Amino acid sequence: MSENTNEHIDGVTNQTDGTVGTVARCFRAPVKSMQGLWVDSLEFRESAAVGDRAWGLIDDTTGKLMTAKRYGRLLEAGADDTTITLADGRRIEIDSPTASGALSEWLGRAVTLCRAGEVPDTGYEMTFDPPNDDAEYYEIPTPPGTFLDLAAAHLMSSATLAACAEARGDLNWDVRRFRPNLLIDVADGVGPFGEEAWVGRDLHVGTAVLSVQSPTVRCAMPLRAQPAEGAEPDLQRQRGMFAAMNELNGTHPNHLGIYLQVVRPGTVAVGDPIKLED
After folding, report:
1. Does the N-terminal or the C-terminal CB of the chain have fewer CB atoms within 10 Å?
2. Closest by alpha carbon to 274, among 212, 205, 207?
3. Kindly report the CA angle at 255 between 168 and 247, in degrees rounded to 5?
4. How many angstroms separate the first and last alpha carbons of the chain?
5. pLDDT band, residue 4 (cuts 50/70/90)
6. What is the pLDDT of residues 147-190, one digit of tens each?
7. C-alpha to C-alpha distance for 114 and 227, rounded to whole angstroms
C-alpha cells in the first residue's frame, strides 16, 4: 500500500448498470455535535435529512453556534429526537423550558438550546490548525436556516477508511470520528478515495437524487475523544490524525469523504444501491 492511498483514484465501477456502491449505514445527529443515531433510513429534504442537526446550542455571549470543533465536551452528550443524555446519566428533555438552563449549568457558560431556523443565521468557529486547541479561531457561516457545516449531506466510503487504516494502522479510523450521514460499501472497480471522482455528478439512491459537490474538508472533530457507544469502545484523542489525512490524500490533502446537495428529495435506506448518473 502506497503511503499516498489515493495515488490511483478510480471512481469507475465494473457494474454495467452504473451501480457504484450500497448504503451500509445511515446516521443523523438531532443536536449539533452531540452523539447521534444510527438509523435504518434517512428522509432527505432539500436542505438536510429530517432530524439531522435539528437543534444546536447558541453561546449567549457571542451569539455563535457551539460545535465540538471548539467545544469538544459536546461529544460527551448524546441525543435522540426528544432527550439529551449527559455523561453522568442526567436526562434533559429537549422541548423543556428548563433545557437551556440545565445545559448552561453543565457547560459552565450561558447557552440557549435552539431549533435550526428559529434563530438568525449564525456561524460556528473553527481553527485551520486542528491539533492545536489554542490556535486562532475563525467564524464560518452555516447554510441559511440550518445548523449544518456546509452541505445537506455527507458521505464516506468504507473502502477509503479501510485504506487509511491499512496505511496508518497506528491510528483509529472508526467511522464515528467523521459523523457522515451515509457510509457506503463501494462496488468492484471503485478504489479508495474513488468517491472524489464523482464530484459534479448525481447519485441516485433510494428515491432521492444527490449531487456530489466537493470532497469534505476535515476539521478538529476526527481528532476528538468520544465516549463508548454500546459495544463499541471509546475513542481516544488523536492529534496525529490531522497530519495523516494530509499525507494520505495527495489529491486533496486533509479531505476525507464527499459533500452532497439534494437534487430530488426522497428516502435513503440501508441496503439501497447507489447509481452514478452518466
Report:
1. C
2. 205
3. 40
4. 31
5. low
6. 999 999 999 999 999 999 999 999 999 999 999 999 999 999 99
7. 24
Q: Comparing C-alpha atoms, which of 143, 147, 273 is closest to residue 206? A: 273
- The overall pTM is greater than 0.90: yes
Q: Looking up cell 503511503, which residue turns up?
A: 3
Percentages helix, strand, coil for the chain, rounded to the nearest 5?
15, 35, 50
Coil, helix or strand at residue 219: coil
pLDDT in tens, 206-248: 999 999 999 999 999 999 999 998 888 999 999 999 999 999 9
Rounded distance, CA 24 to CA 78, Å? 22
Rounded CA-CA distance 143/137 in Å is: 19
Q: Are strands 37-39 and 19-28 parallel, antiparallel or unpaired?
A: antiparallel
Encode pLDDT of 63-106 as tens digits. Answer: 999 999 999 999 999 999 999 999 899 999 999 999 999 999 99
How far apart CA 200 and CA 16 sit, in angstroms, is: 21
Rounded Cα distance between 73 and 220, Å, is: 13
What residue type is assigned to position 270 of the chain?
A: V
What is the rounded distance in angstroms from the CA atom of residue 3 to the CA atom of residue 250?
9
Cα–Cα distance for residue pair 115/30, rounded to 1 Å? 10
Q: pLDDT tens for residues 37-49?
A: 999 999 999 999 9
CATH of 19-276, one of 2.40.33.20, 3.40.50.150, 1.10.3720.10, 2.10.10.70: 2.40.33.20
